[in-house]
Sequence to fold (258 residues):
Amino acid sequence: AQPYETILVERTGRTAVLTLNRPKALNALNLQVMNEVVAATAELDRDPDIGCIVITGSPKAFAAGADIKEMRPQSYMDMYLSDWFTAWDRLGDLRTPTVAAVAGHALGGGCELAMLCDILLAADTAVFGQPEIKLGVIPGIGGSQRLTRAVGKAKAMDLCLTGRTMDATEAERAGLVSRIVPAADLLTEARAVAEKVAAMSAPVAMMAKEAVNRAFETTLAEGVRFERRLFHAVFATEDQKEGMAAFVEKRGAEFRHR
Ligand code: CAA
Fold:
């Protein structure tokens, strides 16, 4: 039996697929979903046998946003004292690479959840937006920041101020999406990407992720210095010896993940 009510977690080999499972509410992200996603991903992150985590929803909705019915009655004090949504930040702190596999609506918190992941695979049915303004609020899980970093001011302002959505093609052109795949192939493709990442050296994949993420937090010179330190450090891994030996010996690398 699974310990969760709003998500499903399935492990296959070195990968795990976490499926949001509130179909009646189009996977609206209430606090229970948040707590379960955060707990499940933290557990997978601690597991040395897991090398990549896929987060997905249903064909109709990745997630149609934070739960509007749950938020509606809240006061400022409720939101402030409970630090509403802050637990979602822990997804950005995961060391294990994550893949968002998005079909259908990825709106508000749904778009923000997808942007918290490292690789964003979109089905051709995916629709992205930050429509909070239509509800009289603004994004609250980092959308105004991550969307702007992903697609620039022009599109971010357009989406956040008008509440309009972007289809998968526009989102890919704008730089929000890593790849578009046919909807019917989304999970197969997401699993394949996850398996590919999970077959790499786990510590080196963590360092690659850390280095890319540093680009969002620092200057170019500091970021390059940070990369250089990590680059030197990977020469302390067995996996660097194996990866380079495999190349020279013209065989596939068998990373030991340490
Ligand atoms: N919160 C709570 N319930 C939601 C929901 C949400 N974000 N999105 C959909 N639902 C519920 C609907 O209320 C409906 O429930 P009932 O059957 O009980 O009425 C059910 O899911 C199905 O939804 P619809 O009937 O609306 O489905 P549709 O196919 O006609 O429309 C949709 C789909 C366009 C996505 C529409 O549901 C919609 O606009 N949803 C809200 C999108 C939105 O505004 N998201 C932002 C939320 S705020 C936010 O996320 C803040 C933040 O930054 C974190």
Notes: The chain has a mean pLDDT of 97.
